[in-house]
Amino acid sequence: MARRVFFSFHYDRDVRRVVQVRNSWVVRPGGDAQPFYDKAEFEEAKKRAGGIEKWIEEQLKGTSVTVVLFGAETYEREWVRHEIKRSYELGKGLLAIDIHNVKDPQSGTDRQGKNPLDYWTVKQHGRDVPFSSLYRTYDWVRDNGYNNMPSWIEAAAKAAGR
Length: 162
Known about the structure:
By secondary structure, this protein is an alpha/beta fold. About 40% of the residues lie in helices and about 20% in strands. The chain has 6 helices and 7 strands; from the N terminus they run βαβααβαβββαβα. The radius of gyration is 15 Å and the shape is globular. It starts with a strand and ends with a helix.
């Protein structure tokens, strides 16, 4: 089954890595991802009524899974945190993919960053449990993301009841 997927990431630092990962998803038969946005669109969203928050809501509509593509600085990004939180609140499937070893054509690989799913927690049995314990995290290179991402997305969707 084709899944509509929202990709959350740090644009400035990781966009060339993200393009490689995202393109591997959309070039497959049945791969159906949200339209890829560019920085200009994101900057324009800041100026509109409702701003970025409204734009994110529009991007999340009709998706069943949010894939957080993270690199060295993604954990610190306010809007990535917001996208994760909203995806959780909306009952979307969630997963994270570490892309620091994906080779940027201009700068090569990067240092590993902290998993953005570690930022959010939920109470379970009286203790705070990080999202990273509830949702799967993969390494694009080590876990062969090119061949395995469709099954990761499907598993995340099913785990969320979608």
